[in-house]
Design a protein that fits this description.
about 150 residues; Subtilisin Inhibitor; four-stranded antiparallel β-sheet; 2 helices; globular; protease inhibitor; secreted
Length: about 150
């Protein structure tokens, strides 16, 4: 007897169709406000000039909202955020600032950023305040000395 004679006969197994895989969507679904991460800011700007004043919403991660440049504002905020530091903190009292008036522009930023509540007020009353404002551009609008209105 040969080795082949002891093997059982093979039978054919019917083919089973694989379940259909749905096609990948061409674009992600729109992000709803309730799906946004915790990084949401409301920026109210006054006396900064035409096209700069108003109330703007900024959502980050992903960027969105009514802010004219939410993506760039989120990028700059992300770059400047440091663990243990309040990005929106006022200038330390007692500092030496130039007596340069930057105009009547004011801004208030409220909401949450990096898991912390934000309620910050900005103006351009002296050199330190101007520098603090300018560090928040493009979240806050660019304002030059000749740009402000009264």
């Amino acid at each position: 007897m040969t080795a082949l004679a002891t093997l059982p006969a093979l039978t054919a197994v019917p083919a089973v169709a694989a379940p259909a895989v749905p096609a990948a969507p061409t674009a992600p679904p729109p992000v709803r406000p309730e799906d946004q991460g915790g990084d949401h800011l409301t920026v109210v700007v006054r006396h900064a000039g035409a096209g700069r004043d108003g109330t703007f919403e900024v959502f980050c991660h992903p960027a969105g909202g009514s802010h004219p440049d939410a993506a760039d504002a989120c990028r700059v905020l992300d770059e400047r955020t440091r663990w243990g530091r309040d990005l929106f903190a006022p200038e330390a009292p007692g500092g030496t600032c130039t007596m340069l008036y930057g105009g009547p522009a004011t801004a208030r930023v409220t909401g949450s950023w990096a898991g912390r509540a934000v309620d910050a007020v900005y103006d351009r009353s002296d050199g330190c305040a101007i520098g603090r404002w300018d560090r928040m551009v493009p979240l806050l609008p660019t304002v030059g000395l000749g740009d402000s209105v009264t």
